[in-house]
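ping. complex inputs:
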Amino acid sequence: MFRSSLFQTYKPVLVFIVKFGGFYMIFSGIYFWYLSLYTAQTDPLTLWVGKIVTKLFDLSGIQAETLPLFNEHGLKLIVEGNYVARIVEGCTAMSVLIMFAAFVFAFGHSFQKNLIFVLGGSILLFGFNILRIVLLGYIMYVFPEYQDMAHRLVFPALIYGFLILLWVVFVLKINDDEV
Amino acid sequence: MTMKFKFKYFGSGLLLLLLVLIRFYEKRFFNDGLIDFFQHDYLTRDLPHLSLWQIIVTDSLRYWLQSVISIGILYLYFSRKELIEFLSFVYVLVYITAVAVLVYLLNNYESGQYIALFYVRRVLIQPVLLFIMFPALLYQQKRK
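pong. complex structure:
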């Protein structure tokens, strides 16, 4: 069914997919291990995200705070006295960062370039995600009727669009001059 | 505007919209029982009592529908016929691997280990392969 000439043409793509799967497992494995260190409390990354989010709200003149969730991991986000959302582990965009890094390391030829691009791209994605949480928190406070649409549709489309854009830049511009 | 150009951008754009719609209506058409779990209850750390078959069948249907659409997008964009054959092979391979791991995780689920389940399930229900294949094929096209 599968012709060997096709295998020849697409061998690099096939190798890339297998490598991507490998890096995806390695990076998520490291992340699972990190989370396993915090079974009894909220992990530091989530706490840090909560801190930056409240700081940004403060800077824009909106009163906001985070409180620990009762009996669960994560934070309550309170905007102008209203409990609008939970900030939990899944809000840190680590699953997106892991995908991002797995692609670059599976694709790139130069370890140094990969590392720099992953660091730079991660900072951009992380910042993008913080903005996402702030805007979502604001939408939930002002336009709660749109929160589901924003949370499940608009922001995923934006963040995945941005992720793919970063990869396109990487394969066409950064990873260009080597074979 | 040539006919080819129209097909390339409008065709793949329309199919992409279809993927967005699937996500928007996922609860109505592809509810595997885990959607609500991951939105609300996963922190309480007990997997709801679910039918393994419901998860496998629902997620498989979604995977194959999205795969056909994804292959359509990549075919329209790169307009190479042999791509369909190659991608079918890749999608079958990834499907077998992901389902095997998913079944294993569901059968050996321990409370709190929702993370691994989430990461594997997403390979089936999000168009992850489309995301990574697009830049990869773009690179291959440019190298030629």
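Chain B has one domain: 3-143.
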